[in-house]
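Feature request disguised as a bug: please show the residue count (719) next to Subtilisin-like protease SBT1.6 in the output. Example input:
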Amino acid sequence: MAPLLLLQFLFLIVLPCQISADQTAKAYIVRVDSSAKPSVFPTHYHWYTAQFTEPTTILHVYDTVFHGFSAVLTPSQAASVIQHPQSLPHLKTAAASCTPLVPHSSWVCAINTGCGVKFSIKNCNRKIIGARFFSKGHEAGASGFGGINETIEFKSPRDADGHGTHTASTAAGRHAFRASMEGYAPGIAKGVAPKARLAIYKVCWKNAGCFDSDILAAFDAAANDGVDIISISIGGSDGISSPYYLDPIAIGAYGAVSRGIFVSSSAGNEGPSGLSVTNLAPWLTTVGAGTIDRNFPAEVILGDGRKFSGVSLYAGEPLKGKMYPLIYPGKSGGLSASLCMENSLDPNSVRGKIVICDRGSSARTAKGLVVKKAGGVGMILANGVSNGEGLVGDAHLIPACAVGSSEGDEIKAYLASNSTASATINFQGTEIGVKPAPVVASFSGRGPNGLNPEILKPDLIAPGVNILAAWTEAVGPTGLDSDTRKTEFNILSGTSMACPHVSGAAALLKSAHPDWSPAAIRSAMMTTASLIDNSLNPMVDESSKKPATPYDYGAGHLNLDLAMDPGLVYDLTDNDYVNFLCAIEYGPKTIQVITRSQVSCPMRKPLLENLNYPSITAMFPTRLTGVSSKTFFRMVTNVGEADAVYHVRVEPPKGVKVSVKPGKLVFSETTRRLGYYVIYSGQQNLVLDDSGAVFGSISWVDGKHVVRSPIVVTQTDPL
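Example output, currently without the count:
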């Protein structure tokens, strides 16, 4: 990839995207001040193509959430651009799908000209009312990034890997009365908003990821098409977030939110490590994952009679209690063998045995395939320390069971001490009524926010473990090329699965409250979120089995019934977000990359902590001497009964004094919005927990509603 550079010029911003391997031409995203178009050009497209002295290929023209275009430029063409504008660094790629929701049926089927492979206007119906695909950016960089493999992919809106089908049906699928995945999770299935309509915007390609220019084009098209909700289960795969002005999701989402479109995004799957949450922009609703009260238990039975609980979605021929020799390739075969990577196993050692494989570095089901190719009869998939005890089921091709880190260590210890060690695996089907649930999924992206820790992320969590939803016929349930099974449903886990739950909830909230802004919808979900599991105890962290914190679950777990009537909401406008960008010291030209329009920051720098967010984070200096205090301001809007009176209830973080002024909010027909101040006092001997923070809450109560905001208090060294 090209080196990153930042050059300031007049009105144009050039963002180099993924590039071709021969380095002769590169794909760029170019941000243009649309008001600067000379009147001689009838359209912006004519202006853009006339800007360069040599013919160029325009990939996408953006005119809704972003102003500008993407194009493949030669070095001389890029030099011509740089004579006018400003150049910004490379955008990173990501992988997944983008599925906007439309809660009304006011559209005709909006599709690309020609529709593409195995997709025509006949594929639209009363559920799917629009479908588009975006591949020009990908094709422009294909020579260096593998391109679109049309032997396994459809160059059309049709889904080739299942991810988009699964997330779309989770958000808005109609009732299916005989749903199951090869017998697992049988029953009636439906999406969160089954009467919502779907418009599909395909930007990601099987085994090839997603390109920034295509992501931006999809946002632009969705906003221009008039969607109400955008569900985007895409995030950085490395747990590292780019600055907002280099993030196509943050840029596209800002344009959507500014038009009243709610945008829900996944928090990423790099947990349980801290700072692993992605999609951090405060105009995004960032969703982590929790478990549900359904599980797919399996157990490993050792030759000495001990049993270890795990999970599995294996549906083939069972082992029927027969014991098989046990082997751990990592004992003598090195790291790749311990992970059961491709071509790492010796068939002479593995044949006819149950193989212990460590989790990580390759897909869980791919490890089972490696074992199968080497002649193994089964697999025990053992978590490492980083995954802890968090488990997800997989539709393995061979008898396989996933076990937690401690169970894996005990099984390995048994093998190490017994030269004739043996084991079998017993599969136990579907279990419902599991307690405790929800539990924060071990993989779910965790706070603190790596860009601006003053803004708590994730915002909340939703069901994201072992989720049954629709599946494509183009690929088997494992997604592996060799998996020839066909199934109408599949069971997957990830924050990609949690995100559409919130998207569907947002569609229902928007339908019930059409005048609510995206910020109001998010606030309603956050301030009513649940902190208690089905055993009436505080939610725990799956990886550690310890009580979870707002760094794990944000404001809590989605509770749609309560969100319908939240009482009060914390609203935000475009101006509030501009003040936020000013507060983090973005300059006007940089802010314009995100907002599209020219802005000017206030003479007095806004306070970042005063963004009217439904959560509050106070950051004190590490070298605190004596007593230090901070004051925050929040404004709430009454969306309940006009003459409501609310009183404050404070649960202060340990070692921190918290006071709220005023302590009572009195609303009326003419007074719908009221503000309050929160004053924090931190002591020199402030003791933080293992996450580096202490937590509490502020709640406004009126006898019917509890409007709760999490409090985070932490320490940091000033720059």
